[in-house]
Each structure stands twice: as C-alpha cells, then as structure tokens.
Amino acid sequence: LLSDHLGDCLAPCQSICPARMNIPQMIRQISAENMRDAIRTVKRDITLPAVLGRICPAPCEKGCRRREHDDPLAICLLKRYAADVDLASGAPYLPDCRPATGKKVAIIGAGPAGLAAAWHLLQFGHACTIYDRNDKPGGNLQYAVPLDKLPRDILNAEIRQIEKLGATFNLNHPVQDQSSFENLRKTYDAVLIAAGKIQPAQLQIWKLPAAEPGIRANPQTGQTEVPGVFAAGSAVRELKMAVRAEADGKTAAYAIDQYLTGQTITGLPKEFSTHIGKLQKGEIEHFMQEVPPHPRQVPDDHATAGFTAEQARTESLRCLHCDCRKPDTCKLRIYSQRYQANPNRYPGDRRPFEMQIRHPEILFEPGKCIDCGLCVQICEKAREPLGFTFIGRGFDVRIAPPFRQPLAAALTRVARDCAAACPTAALALKTDLTRLTQQK
Question: Which pTM value belongs to this model?
C-alpha cells in the first residue's frame, strides 16, 4: 500500500523545519483570521516566534512547493506576524500546564536552547530554574545579534512569557567549578546544560565526557553518560541557527520529562510521513488549481516592519495545502506508524500526481487511494447513476468514475458520505480546509 501511495502526510515545509512546527495549520489559521489559534499552533513548537520571525534564515521556505511555480511562501514573516499580533494583544498567549509534579530541573544557559527547554518542561509540570552568567537572559540573541535585526524589547517581551509561565531566572550566576555543578545535581532532579559552546577544560572540571564538537550526548535525547544530566544546543555541537537550538531544547525537554516520569528515554516522538518528492513536469499545475496567482508579498520596509493584516492574509492564501487533509485520522498513516512500516521499502516508479477538484463539495487525489472499495459500495447502495468502480486488474487496478466521466457526474448523491468513509483522504471535503484551521 505504501509503495503505491502518493501523498505527503506532512507538508515539505513542515518536514524540513528543525522545530517540526505545523506550518500549514498556522497558515490556514492566519488566512481565516483566527490569530489566537495561529499563535497556539506556533508556540506548541517554537518558544520565541517573534524573535525567529526576524532573524531566522527560514530553512522551511526551501521546502515550500510553491517555489516550483514562482516564489515560496513568506513563512517566517507569517510566523512573525502571528507573534507580533499576540504580543500586541495585551494578553499574550500562555499554554496550559499540567499539575505540578514536584520535580525540579536546573538549566545552565539562558539562550534559545535553554529557554525552549524551560518552556516545554514547565508545560509538563516540572519547575525550572535557569542559571546564566550574564545579567540578562537570551544568550547570543541578547548580546550578539545586531539591534537593527532584533529589537531587544521584542526579545525581552517573549522571555517574559516564559517567566510568566513559571520559570525562575538566576542571573549573574556562572556555574563553573565542580562543587557548583555537583550542588545542582544534588539539589535538582535533572540538569540540562545549554550554555553554548563549552571549552574542553570546563568539561574536565565538571567531569563530563567530551566529544570533538562538545559534550558527548545521545543525539536523539541529549542524555549524557552522567545520570540525570542532559545537554542541548551548541553545548553538544555547533549550531548556527537559533531555530535549531530551540529544536534541541524542545527535544531535551521531552527526554527529561521521560526521565523524570520513569519512561523509556526516546526524546521527541517521530511523526510518520510519506513524501511525494520532487514534482514531475506539469504536476505543480494540479496544486495551483484553486490557489490565487498573486506574487509573494513584501513588507513596505522589510528591515523594520512586518506584514500588515491585509498582506498576511493575502500571503497566507498562496499556500498550496500540500499536507494531508486527514493527518490524524488517516488509517494508512495510523497503522504505518503503529507497525513502523517503511514507505521506501519497495522503491519504484511512482504514478503521476493528479488532483480532481471539479466537484462542488469534494476533491479526489487518486494517488492516495488504496482501492479499499468503500466508495464503490456506498455508491452502489445509494444507486448513484454512475458512482465509482474498479478499473483495470492486478496491482494496476484503480478506482475512478466509469467511462472517464468527471467527478461531479459520478457523485451526485453521496459525495460527502464517500469523503467521510475514505480512510486516506483520497476523497476529501473541500470544507475540510476550513475545519483544519481549528486547533487540534
């Protein structure tokens, strides 16, 4: 089934994002002017979106499929817009936290990795104290990024949200000698080292195992060989993007939560996804069928200003909606993840991508069809004049309207029933686009 499946569970932009942010969902929420849900989507994975919206080199935009037609979506600017609207709202978004566990975590370093780890650990119910040698939190964001690129009031405003969530900052407090480090290990249930690049001499003082780029730690969890001690960000390997440091902090937070709650330490859960890959000639036109042709929006003064509300909505409507319309209920994906199936196990030539949209209620992506026949049965029971049928034999069998008739002629009575029954979103309601703007 997977070898013949043609679709993206996760959009290319989300797959390439170091923080795994659900970019398409944020974009749909912005297009629906549902800004509270948009920032909720963003801050599920990214702690400092207003900061990253100004300084991130936007690796996600390199995965945007729209660039094969004209220009990629301005994902970073849309993220910045959602964050700026939230900060200006007077009541910036704070996520709900689980009940307090009584566990305490010390975080060495108040840079993007440490801040992100605290953001997620607090939501898990664990108390966090962040130690930093400087008099202000933020690490290189505070002391190395030029002011014209990152106004410090924006950085400090986002850090205040972490403090409001419950983080305690212990500034002007370097942890350098062995006794200070051991005291943290005795006082706290776990310690995360996120203090940027650390010199080998410092690791010797702390008696931590070293690797060539930094602390020797499990790359999937950040767990070191010292019980209860984890590491993230440039303390493990050199990172040149703040978004990668944030992603490291998030991963470490999940691993520390697993450690504190007695689970197997695996780090961030891996999401299953199939990928269409590089589009063939003419396939991008299928994605462009219902998308406005207008060009990428550019702020009036990109150096200082972000999008206006009108620009943000106009830009968000350029999204091709590459991700699945049933990402959480697709049965093929659910069972593939459960049984750890490998979609690349049986490589071969893929079928051409096709999307049929000329129906008032639904769309049809034949490449996602698994030939289960549910729609054929529904059409037969309802006595659709045409309906769907099996065409061909063997592995090449396909479900389609008979006699090459259009989708609108085939489904006149039970289109919505077929879309609801389809296990893979090969048939999907066009209104699912609106539904998917709501927070899951």
Answer: 0.92
